[in-house]
Amino acid sequence: MTQVLITAAELAGRLDSGARTAVLDVRWSLGAPHGLTAYEAGHIPGAVFADLETELAVPVQPGSAEEAAGGRHPLPAPDSFQETARRWGIDDGDPVVVYDDSAGQSAARAWWMLRDAGVEDVRILDGGLAAWTRGGLALERGREVPALGSVHLSGPHLPRVDADAAAALPGQGGLLLDARAPERYRGEVEPVDPRPGHIPGAVSAPTSGNLAPDGTFLPADALRERYAALGAVAGRDVAVYCGSGVTAAHDVAALAIAGIDAALYPGSYSQWSRDPSRAVATGDEESTGDGETAASASVGTMSRGARA
After folding, report:
1. Which pLDDT score, from 0 to 100, does residue 268 have?
2. For residue 56, what is the domain's CATH number?
3. Domain for residue 142, yes or no?
4. 107 and 202 together in one domain
5. Do the beta carbons of residue 21 and residue 97 sit within 8 Å?
6. 167 and 126 in one domain?
7. Whole-prediction pTM value?
8. What residues make up the domain containing 41?
9. Do 151 and 187 form a contact (C-beta atoms < 8 A)?
10. What pairs with residue 202 in β-bridges?
11. Ranges under pLDDT 70 in the chain
12. 255 with 232: CB under 8 angstroms?
């Protein structure tokens, strides 16, 4: 299994030794998507800012046909992403480290995209920027502008599913995981997408459950135990979605640490909920472990085409 994580001490050692390493700062969050200001105020030495909204996704206008077709953060075309990776200064064979200030919640998107594009050694900084500063390691200010890289990207190399495959997976014995916060999964709140709830048959697997109290990933055995309890067992197909395909990559990374391959649904709930032909479920569902899902006592109604 390709290594997923790198510690702050390990990264510092690589940088101090002069070993060639491309470092990407991927600060972003749903409520504060513009991380450039924070990056310029202080980042890991040599790190290049990676803009999730414009470089790790195709910008779309809210309410547009493009958003309905691909969700809020559709993946860029391969040739466009290759140009971006070269602007980040990446050459063929370069190890890449990605980090953010939210324990990998957005950095995992860059990890998944680069691995999907054929970059073999991509690691998430375990614990993110907090782990770096907690170790007393230095930051630098301003903006890093690297020399143009020459990386050649390919792919896709990682499994992914579309809306039809996500819809069919639970009924075919597979496991569909929802990486969003539990209250969004249940449909109690929905800050951005048009209909609250989740894809019918999906099981709640919030990314917060992947983390220890200090923001680092749980050990592999603990992650295996967590996902086994959710129904991720040997021989069962697993796919993950979130709001727009960003934080779902965090679950995919956690599953990879646990030794489980999982597909990503890039359009995720932002695409699903904008299609009036797709049913939406509210309340809780739990995996029975045999490819089916059982509604709990708090399961809500199924809606088709309703607006929040």
Report:
1. 98
2. 3.40.250.10
3. no
4. no
5. yes
6. no
7. 0.92
8. 5-134
9. no
10. none
11. 1-2, 31-33, 286-308
12. yes
Written as six digits, the tokens of 158 are: 């990682």
Phi and psi for 263 in degrees, rounded to 5? -90, 155
Query: Which pLDDT score, from 0 to 100, does residue 286 have?
Result: 66
Is 203 part of any domain?
A: yes
User: For this structure, is 224 an active site residue?
Assistant: no
Evaluate the omega torsion of the peptide bond into residue 182 and state whether it is cis, within 30 degrees of 0.
no
DSSP H stretches of helix in 148-188 = 163-168, 182-186
- Looking at the DSSP assignment, which residues form a beta bridge with residue 175? 238
Is 40 part of a structural domain of the chain? Answer: yes
Distance, CA of 52 to CA of 58 (rounded, Å)? 9
Of the candidates 242, 246, 258, 263, the residue annotated as catalytic is 242
Total domains in the fold of the chain: 2
> In terms of C-beta density within 10 A (0-12 exposed, 13-18 middle, 19 or more buried), how is residue 305 classed?
exposed
Task: Quote the DSSP letter at residue 245.
Answer: S
Structure tokens belonging to residue 112: 């998944």
Q: Where are the alpha helices (DSSP H) in 125-162?
A: 128-134
Please tell me whether residues 168 and 130 are part of one structural domain.
no
Look at residue 291 and tell me if it is in a domain: yes
Structure tokens at 118: 């054929």
pLDDT, residue 32, reads: 65
